[in-house]
Design goal:
Helices cover 34% and strands 26% of the residues. With 636 residues, the chain is α+β, with helices and mostly antiparallel strands. The strands form 5 sheets. An 8-stranded mixed beta sheet has the order 4-1-7-8-12-11-14-15. A 5-stranded mixed beta sheet has the order 9-13-10-16-17. Strand 23 and strand 24 form a beta hairpin. Helix 8 runs antiparallel to helix 9 and helix 13 runs parallel beside helix 16. 27% of the residues are buried.
């Protein structure tokens, strides 16, 4: 009865939605949805939420064999799932109201038909249960295309996917419409039922504020996809194809009326090609991507890469040949030349390496920090020929990238079209920082103040910041003191670093952010070390570089970090993060009570080794004996 009343209410709402304008013919639309289970043990005939087998003996046998898997990896229960489709409307006073088109239970199948006067953005929301957050899809009705969505239930630990399927349109203004499509059978892999396509680009509003615009993801159906969207101006965009059996991406210049086709590039599938035949895409992408020189290099490097990943098994004759002395004059010339080249490069590196060792040794420790410098601290290890080996695929890939770079450089330096020059710079034609800075600076006089402030000045500021941050990073080595700072904690109380240091023996200064996966992955081990050595006057000072305080606070509450937590909350370019040369996170400095650096780029494994050597091994850290050979690696 409740569902019936809702449906009757919607029948009253929809005609109002349709009849708001009398002089336009309504456009019919249809929205459908389904459910796909990726659980291998479930039959297609079994409805979601009802996995009871008709063969009780088989079920009991399966559960007896894998009781843990059956208990943990359960399918999605849709018995309480609710589907909502809504749109927003704004009145003349600027008040926003949400209008609901559909609100009903979702059992794995859905169908809804209606009409609309004009293209309207709608939100399709699915809440599986009261304990889960809604999954949302944004799309547009009234474009002439039907809409189909799919809920994909993956085995644990992967989360469910709620995506549009096959064809999707986001077109609000036909004059700005672009189309991206592709028949992906050329990939020659099983795209299964989870391969999606996503296009995205940075866009700017009338005030110059930037944000990321996404078109998709859309689920590949019958090996193809079709995406329509709006581009009011040329946009540098990226298209990703992602699934269990394939991942690839390609660059595009999206433009009004652009029609783009994703296709095979040469004889390989590591890199994708995108063609339009016109506009800035043809000028700035196809001009290098579709040339014989580039395609030949891509074919070459991908072939070598496959050999590098999967070396062929030697034949019997090759094994015998390998054991037989070779004629020195016959076939070893090329090999010897390659070895000679490698040894030559290694010798060059050994010379530069010796210079680096001499430079580090020449830096005197700060007064009072002599104990922080050990004999082998921060000394680069000498190169060997084996360390200096460069795979052939890498060299070929760099040559392909050089073709791209040179084409973009020529276009930027010779074009009289300022928009083409801007797009070329956005594609990154230079690897040299000075040339990149010069390129952006040359564009400042070619656009109006608003454009420069929103799109060019930030690039220049970032380059200038990176120079400063990199210099600071290089200067902060063991034996030097870290910069002083004062930051607020979550209760808005200001704390000065050196006041904290004076009360402790050793402190880890850990830069992180709530969105940083590797940072979060380090927390469990850091908590163990903090608990084990807190009585030895070891402390951790976490510094968040989140942009928003709310994100930082939520991160603190979610991860329950027991140490001192301070927030700079100015992203990468905050003065404290910049003074510490933070260009990647997690970033840790291990310092003593005087602020003397003992180590940098500190991760849990290295920290544990230092603390055990300094204070002895705490009982809580003693691992039970196992027969495994696994060992923890350290990244930094």
């Amino acid at each position: 009865m409740k569902t019936l009343l809702k449906t009757l209410g919607l029948l009253c709402i929809v005609p109002l939605f349709v009849a708001c304008t009398q002089n336009q013919a309504p456009t019919p639309y249809k929205i459908t949805g389904d459910f796909i289970s990726m659980h291998p043990e479930l039959s297609e005939e079994v409805a979601p939420g009802d996995e009871t087998s008709t063969d009780e003996a088989e079920t009991e046998e399966t559960e007896a064999e894998t009781p843990l898997e059956q208990e943990v990896d359960t399918s999605l229960d849709l018995s309480n799932a609710t589907l909502t489709i809504s749109y927003e409307t704004t009145d003349r006073q600027g008040n926003v109201e949400t209008i609901s088109l559909v609100e009903q239970a979702f059992d794995g199948n859905f169908e809804f038909e209606s009409e609309t006067i004009e293209p309207t953005e709608v939100t399709i929301s699915l809440q599986v249960s009261e304990d889960t957050d809604p999954m949302e899809i944004n799309t547009v009705i009234g474009t002439g295309h039907d809409i189909h969505f799919t809920l994909i239930d993956h085995p644990s630990p992967r989360n469910p996917q709620f995506v549009l399927a096959g064809t999707t349109s986001y077109v609000m203004d036909p004059e700005s419409k672009f189309v991206v499509s592709g028949d992906l059978r050329f990939l020659d892999v099983d795209l299964t039922e989870d391969t999606t396509v996503l296009a995205y680009a940075r866009v700017y509003d009338e005030e110059g504020n930037s944000s990321w615009q996404e078109w998709g993801p859309v689920l590949v159906q019958d090996n193809s996809f079709h995406i329509e969207g709006d581009a009011k101006e040329p946009l540098v965009a990226t298209l990703n194809i992602s699934g269990s059996n394939y991942y690839g991406s390609t660059s595009m210049i999206l433009e009004p009326h652009g029609d783009y086709t994703v296709a095979k590039l040469g004889n390989q599938t590591e890199e994708l090609g995108t063609t339009s035949g016109s506009g800035y895409h043809a000028m700035l992408i196809e001009s290098w991507q579709q040339t014989d020189e580039y395609i030949d290099l891509v074919d070459a490097w991908t072939t070598e890469f496959e050999l590098f990943r999967n070396p062929p098994e030697p034949s019997e004759s090759e094994e015998v040949e390998a054991q037989t002395p070779k004629d020195e004059d016959a076939g070893d010339v090329a090999v010897e030349e390659e070895v000679d080249d490698l040894e030559e490069d290694a010798a060059d590196n050994e010379e530069s390496d010796a210079d680096a060792i001499e430079l580090v040794a020449a830096v005197e420790p700060a007064e009072g920090c002599e104990d922080a410098v050990s004999e082998d601290s921060q000394q680069p290890e000498p190169f060997s020929s084996s360390q200096n080996y460069v795979p052939k695929y890498y060299t070929l890939r760099e040559q392909a990238r050089e073709v791209r770079a040179k084409t973009l450089q020529t276009l930027f330096e010779s074009s009289e079209d300022s928009t083409a020059q801007y797009l070329a710079m956005a594609l990154g034609p230079y690897t040299d920082r000075a040339k990149t800075l010069s390129g952006w600076q040359s564009l400042e006089v070619k656009f109006d103040e608003k454009f420069v402030a929103a799109r060019i000045k930030p690039e220049i500021d970032f380059l200038n910041w990176s120079v400063t941050a990199q210099a600071n990073n290089a200067a902060l080595i063991p034996g030097q003191r870290v910069p002083e700072f004062t930051l607020a904690n979550a209760m808005d109380e200001d704390l000065a670093l050196y006041d904290l240091l004076g009360e402790k023996d050793m402190v880890l200064i850990d830069f992180w952010a709530s969105w940083c996966g590797p940072c979060i992955a380090d927390f469990p081990e850091l908590k163990k070390l903090h608990a084990a050595y807190q009585d030895e006057d070891f402390e951790i000072v976490g510094i968040s570089i989140d942009s928003e305080k709310e994100d930082w606070i939520e991160g603190l509450e979610e991860h329950k970090l027991p140490w001192i937590n301070l927030g700079e909350l100015k992203d990468w370019e905050g003065p404290v993060a910049t003074s510490y040369g933070v260009m990647g996170i997690p970033m840790g400095y291990l310092v003593d009570s005087q602020g003397c650096i003992y180590d940098k780029h500190v991760r849990p494994a290295a920290l544990k080794e230092f603390l055990v050597n300094r204070y002895g091994e705490d009982e809580s850290l003693v691992e039970p004996e196992t027969e495994t050979d696994d060992s923890q690696g350290v990244s930094g």
